[in-house]
Amino acid sequence: MLESWEGRFFITFAAVLEEKSFSRAAERLGYVQSTVTAHVRHLELTSGKKLFHRLPRGVEPTEAGLQLAPFAYQFIQLGQSLQDALTDTDSPSGIVRLGALESFAVSHLPFFLTGFLKQFTKIKLHLTPGLMHEVADQVANHRADLGIVPKPPERDDLLFTPLLEEKLALVCAPALRERFEQQGWRSLYDSAFISFGEQCIYHAYGRDVLRDADVELADQLSFPSVELIKQTVSCGMGIAFVPESNVAREIAAGALLSLPYDRELTLTHGVITHKSREPKAADKALIQHLKAYFAAN
Question: What is the C-alpha to C-alpha distance for residues 165 and 68, in angstroms, rounded to an integer?
Answer without folding.
Answer: 37
